Structures are given as C-alpha cells and as structure tokens.
C-alpha cells in the first residue's frame, strides 16, 4: 500500500476508513503513490521527501486534529482531503481552517451492491455499525415494535472488534445479551465485509437511530446501494450523504423523544417497505449511491488530485 500510510491503530482495523483507504490504494498507480505520504486521520511521523496529504475522517473536536489550529502545523501538509462538505465546514468553523486551494472534498467509495430480489412476506431490519452510534436506542424500540409486527427480524452486526478493540465490547455485553435472547433479533458481532454485503441483500430496512456525528456514512451508502429503506436522523453529514433521498427525521438530543420519533418512523417503514410504490422508489437512491460513491469514480478523483499535486510540487525541495 505505497503512499497510503498505516499506523498503530489502523493496522488492526477493518473500519470504514480502512476499507476506503485500502480499496482506493489498490487502484492508484504504484509509481504515483510512491511520491506521496497519505495520512488518514492520525498524524505520526512525516516524511519530508514525500508530498503529504492529510486525509480527514475525524470530527473537528477530536484531540488528534487540534494541531491544525496552528498554521505552522497546517503548513506541513500539501493538501487536506475531507470526506464531506459538512466535515470541511465543521473544521473551518471550529478550527479556523482556511478555505482555499489546499483543501478538497472527496467522498468515501463503495463497491455497489449487485441487483437482487428480496423476500416480500417478511421484513428484515439491519444495524451494522459500532454500538455507541445508536444501538442502545434501537434495541428497546425494536422490542416494542416486535410486539406489534409478527413478520420482522433484526440482524445486528456490531462490535469494537472491527477496530481491534476487543475489550471495549465488555461495556455493551448486557445489550448484546438482550439481542441474543430475543427471538426476533440475531447478534452476529463482527464478521467480514462480504458477509455483511450478503445480509444487505436479504434486508429491507436500515434501522439507524444515529446519535454519533458522522463525517460521512458508509453504512448509509451501502444500504442505499442495497435498495434498503433507510431510517435515520438528520444529524451531521447524514443529510449530505443521503442527498435527502432516505426516510430521515429531525434529530432530538432528548433520548426519550428521539426514541419515540424513531419508533414512529420505523413503524411506518415496516408497514410500507414491501409495497410496490416504495420498492419502485428505492431504485432511485440505489442508482444515486451507485453512481456518486462508485469506487472507480472516487479513485479517479484521488488520482487526478495526486497528479495535480505532483505537477505542482515535483521540483519542491
């Protein structure tokens, strides 16, 4: 993975940042990539002989990015790349990041989910993000909905093992236990990406009562590509990621109010998802996600940016 740096955290991780980084790196010419040091989120040692690109995946309040308030630190990089316009604006507002030719937004890529047929006599819901992003809100809401709907099932793929942080799951073990013991829920923990993609083909609804400020959202993009009805709040970069094509509701900081609102939206989705009207509509957000976030398209944006930087800095000392 020439140019695309790994650090002590990322080398054991299979999260969205790492999947994006490794998939893009595989499509960039090695000779070009060898001229670069591309740092995803965590700055460690900088190589003065490389063109340095700082690729942001964190929030502006993250301790790891506070050094950008210092222009001497900022000037160590030839380019800063952000994964959403919302994230770039957040860095500009909170850290005073200048908006100029040294910043650029390039979205995270996916490999589109291939066309498939879903069962119409049941409704499979899915959650496939780390637990702190909304699982504690989803589980009690689903428990109540399961009393009303006989034909629903929730598959949960959630574990900090995706980052190599096995011990962090201990705090959520009581929640995982509730899922395991419920007849209409299945806890899968951490599995490989191919397994999640197969379950997405069997799923009808992304149930994502997100309470985490997403700078971009691979979970949402892949769910759109899989033809799911995506139920989530309008928090942070989620509206931008979805382009407003999903079942989105107003985020509420009050947990109880959020849960009640999510219950109503999810109940509506369960009732409507298998209707012909909704199935016809879901082809549109799929087409949007497949085009906008397509891996070859995003990789070309990276390559073009790198070629421009190489042209600009090839004679720098």
Short note summarizing the structure:
The chain has 317 residues and is α/β, with parallel strands linked by helices. It is built from 13 helices and 10 strands. The protein has helices spanning 16-25, 30-33, 71-74, 85-95, 135-148, 173-181, 193-202, 218-225, 238-242, 255-272, 276-281, 283-292, 295-313, and strands at 36-40, 51-55, 79-82, 103-105, 123-127, 152-156, 185-187, 205-207, 229-233, 247-249.
Give an account of the 3D structure.
With 317 residues, the protein is of the alpha/beta class. It has helices at 16-25, 30-33, 71-74, 85-95, 135-148, 173-181, 193-202, 218-225, 238-242, 255-272, 276-281, 283-292, 295-313; strands at residues 36-40, 51-55, 79-82, 103-105, 123-127, 152-156, 185-187, 205-207, 229-233, 247-249. The strands form 2 sheets. The protein has a 6-stranded parallel β-sheet with strand order 7-6-5-8-9-10, sandwiched between helices. Strands 1-2-3-4 form a 4-stranded parallel β-sheet. The longest helix has 19 residues, at 295-313. The radius of gyration is 20 Å and the shape is globular. The two termini are 25 Å apart. 38% of the residues are buried. The mean pLDDT is 94.
């Amino acid at each position: 993975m020439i140019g695309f740096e790994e650090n002590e955290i990322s080398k054991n991780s299979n999260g969205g940042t790492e999947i994006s980084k490794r998939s893009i790196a595989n499509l960039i010419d090695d000779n070009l990539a060898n001229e670069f040091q591309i740092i995803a989120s965590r700055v460690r040692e900088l190589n003065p002989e490389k063109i340095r690109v700082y690729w942001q995946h964190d929030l502006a309040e993250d301790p790891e990015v506070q050094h950008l308030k210092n222009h001497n630190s900022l000037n160590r990089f030839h380019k800063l790349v952000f994964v959403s316009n919302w994230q770039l604006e957040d860095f500009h507002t909170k850290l005073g990041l200048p908006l100029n030719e040294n910043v650029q937004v390039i979205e995270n890529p996916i490999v589109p989910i291939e066309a498939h047929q879903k069962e119409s006599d049941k409704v499979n819901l899915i959650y496939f993000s780390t637990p702190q992003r909304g699982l504690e809100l989803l589980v009690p809401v689903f428990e109540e909905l399961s009393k009303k709907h006989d034909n629903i099932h929730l598959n949960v793929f959630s574990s900090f093992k995706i980052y190599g942080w096995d011990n962090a799951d201990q705090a959520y073990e009581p929640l995982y236990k509730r899922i395991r013991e419920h007849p209409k829920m299945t806890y899968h923990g951490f599995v490989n990406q191919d397994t999640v993609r197969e379950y997405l083909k069997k799923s009808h609804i992304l149930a994502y009562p997100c309470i985490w400020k997403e700078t971009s959202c691979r979970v949402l993009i892949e769910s759109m590509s899989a033809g799911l009805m995506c139920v989530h709040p309008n928090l942070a970069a989620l509206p931008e990621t979805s382009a407003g094509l999903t079942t989105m509701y107003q985020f509420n900081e009050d947990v109880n109010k959020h849960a009640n609102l999510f219950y109503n939206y999810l109940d509506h989705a369960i009732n409507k998802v298998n209707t012909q009207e909704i199935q016809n509509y879901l082809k549109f957000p799929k087409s949007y996600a497949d085009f906008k976030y397509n891996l070859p398209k995003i990789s070309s944006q990276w390559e073009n940016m790198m070629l421009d930087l190489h042209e600009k800095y090839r004679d720098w000392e």
